[in-house]
Input
Amino acid sequence: MGVVNVTPDSFSDGGLHLRAEDAIAAARRMVDEGAAIVDVGGESTRPGSKGVSADEELRRIVPVLEAVADELPVSIDTSKAAVAGRALQLGAELVNDVTALRADPELAGVVADAGAYVCLMHMLGTPRTMQDDPRYEDVASEVAAFLEERLAFAVAAGIPEEHVCLDPGIGFGKTVEQNFELVRRLDILTSLGRPVVIGFSRKSSLGRVTGDAGATTGPLAASLAAAVAAYDHGATILRVHDVRETVEALAVAQAVGA
Ligand code: HH2
Output
């Protein structure tokens, strides 16, 4: 899954794809490089962010989706029913909701009615507060219990179980060590029976582990190592900013594991 953030303030690619033509070119390039899906987002969820209105999100993403959502496999990274509904109308196939259908009571129905796919992600708190001393008794079991409950909620709302993928939410209310533990113990999540998404790409834990205590992003080589580790532990979808390099790294990991 390639990431195209149509935002001025995303933590690693903010501003890079804010102009629609740049976002459209990036989406096409990512699919050429081997992405199976492109995740288009119009709102940053970086730690501390406050969010934007549905109108602003639509203003950012609609021109991009009008150009590519019929031609490319696209997911929409949003928590808002109005944004998801428009994106699905334009041809998006999956709604990637970092709140796991908790933020907008209309969103589950929009996904169900469209027959779309959904990604349910774990987050502790909100982007504004999530990195303020996150605590768990047992992070992997608690994230798994949360995702199991949200999966049941989605199914009860009319979304077929086969249309749901699950994501532990790397960096969303977790310490550096908790992020790595979630990948190490990924079997607890894969045992829920749904594809698992991991988004470790460029996240600050990678910069911290490679020696920069104040890092807000992580380097490419560290992102590739995290993607391969996640793949080895059973992740099905890797959400990444550097598609070509990740596809190459995964091709080798796959050849070794075959
Ligand atoms: N991470 C980000 C955004 N959306 N969705 C899923 N399913 N999993 C993730 O790990 C995830 C996500 C944050 O990364 P990015 O989109 O690059 O940054 P920002 O939120 O600042 O736009």
